[in-house]
Structures are given as structure tokens and as C-alpha cells.
Specification:
This protein is mainly alpha-helical. It contains 16 helices and three strands. It starts with a helix and ends with a helix.
């Protein structure tokens, strides 16, 4: 699905972040790099592309009621229409969101430095980090089916990546309409999580910013962190941790990572359970899709697996599995309404050890 075939949709979601002085990352360069490197989507005819975009929009609208009924979570007001986009637009939107999330952290870091780098050094450094961000975004842009963009300084929105939904559905050889509906159920669940639970978005943004500040080394600790990276590099290849970033973290920071990972496991596992629990009445081939999709998750090429390990994406995949096991176990114990106590406050979110011990969460929250 080449770029010109998806420009029938709303590209206004990708607005450049305004320049506010020197930046640690050149986000415009990140967007340009990502757009240049990202692979083209599947080849389809123009009319096919228009029909796919229209169907995805419709299926997303039809997902609202089944998700709310299954999850017993109801967001206030009408659900805004999703933004159906292509891969370069996904890169642009996420670069803007990353900028909104990270730039305050970088500004604080630079303000705390005793020596102020020259404009030339800052410009070169921001280009390098921008290129790195662009490479990462180009890799992810070909993988992501959908996303609820938290937009830290803007308006949150539900994103659905049309070329990826088309390509994956074809490669899995499943009913394409059922598959697209299934993906829409997952992403609609994320929208409901953040709109029916008013405090969750700001809580997650705050936790992510705090973690980013902890993980960004200052001038004094940079050399020590790099030495840790060299000695512990084999751990990144093992796939058991959170990738290169986890190797640079202090023990205290890794505790915070574990807490944030537990919350993400809940969110992803909850969405996975809801998309499956909607059931064959709405998605007739749901069991076949789940079986093939799980097989696909574990069937990447050697290069793909290596990149996922280094970037910590294997840990992301475990979030779906661990979170789904947690959610199903809690539902078995106290039902959907009992599970929904998890959304009461930050204190009722699962702790890292509770993700693998759901009974401990039930005992702590329900007594």
C-alpha cells in the first residue's frame, strides 16, 4: 500500500513540533530519516486502498459497543473517529509524541550541565540522535497495526495503520474483515482504558517522563554506564531483559522499569483478553486468528529476533502473554467487575510480582 494510495485519509495528525531553542534530538530529522528508510507497504490498487481505509474506519466504529459491553468500561461522550494512516504518517505522529514526552526531560538535563555545548556541537549531536530515533521509528512503523497515541502535549487519538493491517491479514491467510475487526477491538480497548479511567493517561505520562529522566545519564555517570553496557552486553542478546536501555539502568531505575512494565502488561493483556472475549458472534474466525497471530509473533527471522532483543521488544511481546494470564486469572477469581477495581487509582494497579501472582493482587485489593 504505497504512500499515494493512503493519502485519501487524514494526514493532519502529523504536525511538526515547534522549535523552542536547542534540542537534544532533531525530531524533524528523525521524521525525514524514518520516512526515507521505512519499507513500502503492500502493493494494492488505488480502489482497493480506498475500500480498505473505509472498511477499517467502519469496523473501528462498530468495535465501540462490543468492547464497552465486554470490558464493562464506558468512556464518556461519543468515540472520536480513528485516524487511519500509512507508515510515514505513523512515524511523524510518533516523533511528535516522543518529542512532547522527552524534550522537557532533555531540557532539564541540559540546564543542569555546568558546561554549555556550542551551537555547532548541539546541532551535530541532535542530528545524530535524530537519525537514531528515525531508524528505530522506521523499524517499528512496519510492525505496528494500531495504537492509542497518548499525545503528551496534544489531543490523544486512535491510530490504525492501514498498510500493516492489510499486509498482516494477507500473510496470515485469514478472513481479512475478521482480522481487521479483531485489531480494531484491541485498539478500541486501549482507547477505553485511557478515556474511561480519567487519571490513567497523566499517570502513565508522568511515570514515563520520570523514568526517562532516571535513565538519561549525566556527564559524570556516562562513562560508568558505558562500562556496564560492555560487560553486560550478552544479556541484551539473551532476550530475557528490556534490551540495551535496561543495561544502562541502575538497580533503582530497574525497579521503576519493572513497575511500569507491570502496568503495560495489564494494559496489553487486558486488550488481548477483550478482543478475544468479544467472541465468534462478532468475529466468527477469532480462534483461528488468535492461533495464527500467536504463531506469527514467535516466527520472526533471525535478524528480526536480534533487533527485537536489542530494542527490548521481546519484553513487549511477553507483556501480552503475562498480562493476559493475569487478567484471565483475576476474572476467574472475582469476575469482570472485580477486575475493574484495578482502575480505581494508581495504588490498585498491579505490582511487578502480582502480574505473575494474580491471587496476591486479589488479596491486596479485595481482601
Amino acid at each position: 500500500m504505497s504512500d499515494d494510495l493512503t493519502q485519501t485519509d487524514d494526514h493532519s495528525a502529523a504536525n511538526d513540533t515547534a522549535a523552542n531553542g536547542p534540542s537534544y534530538v532533531d525530531w524533524s530529522f528523525a521524521k525525514a530519516t524514518g520516512a526515507r528508510l521505512v519499507q513500502a507497504g503492500p502493493a494494492v490498487k488505488r480502489e482497493e486502498a480506498r475500500e480498505a481505509v473505509a472498511q477499517i474506519r467502519q469496523l473501528a466504529a462498530e468495535a465501540v459497543e462490543p468492547v464497552a459491553e465486554t470490558a464493562r468500561l464506558h468512556a464518556p461522550g461519543a468515540a472520536p473517529a480513528p485516524v487511519v494512516i500509512d507508515r510515514p504518517t505513523w512515524i511523524a505522529v510518533n516523533a511528535d509524541s516522543m518529542s512532547s514526552l522527552m524534550d522537557p526531560v532533555f531540557a532539564q538535563l541540559m540546564a543542569s550541565r555546568e558546561d554549555t555545548p556550542s551551537a555547532a556541537v548541539t546541532a551535530i549531536g541532535s542530528k545524530v540522535t535524530g537519525a537514531e530515533a528515525g531508524v528505530l521509528l522506521s523499524f517499528l512503523a512496519g510492525k505496528v497495526l494500531g495504537q492509542y497515541d497518548l499525545a503528551p502535549s496534544g489531543t490523544p487519538k486512535l491510530l490504525l495503520v492501514a498498510p500493516n493491517m492489510v499486509q498482516v491479514g494477507r500473510e496470515m491467510r485469514v478472513d481479512e474483515t475478521d482480522f481487521r475487526r479483531w485489531v480494531c477491538m484491541h485498539e478500541e480497548t486501549h482507547r477505553v482504558q485511557f478515556t474511561a479511567v480519567p487519571w490513567l493517561r497523566e499517570h502513565l505520562i508522568g511515570e514515563a517522563r520520570g523514568l526517562a529522566a532516571d535513565m538519561t545519564p549525566d556527564q559524570e555517570s556516562l562513562q560508568e554506564r558505558l562500562q556496564q553496557l560492555v560487560t553486560r552486553l550478552p544479556e541484551a542478546f539473551s532476550g530475557n531483559g528490556g534490551g540495551l536501555a535496561d543495561l544502562l539502568a541502575s538497580p533503582q531505575t530497574r525497579e521503576k522499569v519493572a513497575q511500569l512494565t507491570a502496568v503495560m502488561s495489564l494494559l496489553e493483556g487486558h486488550a488481548d483478553v477483550v478482543m478475544d472475549e468479544v467472541g465468534p458472534e462478532v468475529i466468527p474466525t477469532v480462534e483461528e486468528i488468535r492461533r495464527k497471530f500467536n504463531a506469527r509473533r514467535s516466527g520472526q527471522s533471525a535478524v528480526d529476533r536480534l533487533l527485537r532483543r536489542l530494542l527490548g521488544l521481546d519484553a513487549k511481546m511477553r507483556q501480552y502473554k503475562d498480562g493476559a494470564v493475569f487478567v484471565r486469572a483475576v476474572i476467574d477469581e472475582v469476575g469482570w467487575d472485580g477486575l475493574n477495581a484495578v482502575w480505581t487509582s494508581p495504588d490498585t494497579l498491579p505490582k511487578p510480582l502480582e502480574i505473575s501472582d494474580p491471587k496476591a493482587w486479589v488479596a491486596r485489593v479485595h481482601g
